[in-house]
Amino acid sequence: MALNINGTTGISGVDGSASAPAVTGTDSNTGINFASDTVNINTGGTERMRINSAGSVGIGTSSIDTGYGSSHKLQITSVSDNNWGGSLVLSSADGSSVFSRLVASTSGFDFINTKATSSRFFTNNSERMRIDSDGNIGIGENSHNDNRIRCTSPYALNIVAKSTNGNGGYHNFTGKSSNGTTTFVVNHNGDVTNTNNSYGSLSDSKLKENITDASSQWNDVKAIKVRNFNFINDNSKTKMLGVIAQEIEVVSSGLVDELADRDDSTGEDLGTTTKSVKYSVLYMKAIKALQEAQTRIETLETKVAALEAG
Fold this sequence. Notes:
By secondary structure, the chain is α+β, with helices and mostly antiparallel strands. The chain has helices spanning 218-223, 245-251, 279-309, and strands at residues 3-4, 23-24, 31-35, 38-43, 46-51, 57-59, 74-76, 86-91, 98-105, 108-113, 118-123, 126-132, 137-139, 149-151, 171-176, 182-187, 192-194, 227-229, 240-242, 256-262, 269-277.
């Protein structure tokens, strides 16, 4: 039965429409109308909100998206592509405490959480990312121990900035100082550059023990084969100078690491491995061998000087 709130009984069995709602006040084109298992709320002859049989609510739309399943509870659609905005506010029962607010405008979306200690993001009913009250971000985990951004295995942190580097590629990672100056870059080809060419390692004596002189590296350095090569997947076939892990392993196995190859997206072990060489340690072996060579040279110079002196 249609019912006019100002006291006039409507016509039984009329569901009404947006322009002529079944339930109205004194404004004949503002009120409520009905459809199959659906309640619509209208103002000025236009439908503004709809509640369907699944309990989902659509605001500004008569077609509630069910692409995310029947539990899709709230959908807000802009009035027009060029004029939209609004906010969704969740608060306590008395309205005194705002827990979170989603604000939408032409400049983007702002999610504001004022009460909870963290914001969590889920896909497929599992937590995938968390932002805590200090601004730390955990991806694939819910505890990140004060690391600003941390990812859990098997997923590695992969930051890609699609900024051109002048060679048609992009930088995988760019670090900047407080004034916006670029200070550190990992290039698309794997090269790492920085502003002061300084790369270091923690080396304070307070961090170390069992300190002794290194043994001779003379024979190892002599046995190392220095090669020219290019990488198979390098289309430019750039000639490089270096060593081969399998050959270095025969000379000094401690210089070689071997890690399982894994699928980039799933982390699945592919059943193969890739070797790498600890070039930083190799350089230290070379320095030790250079010191030994210098000692031999100085010894020979002393002997030659004695022979020349007669």
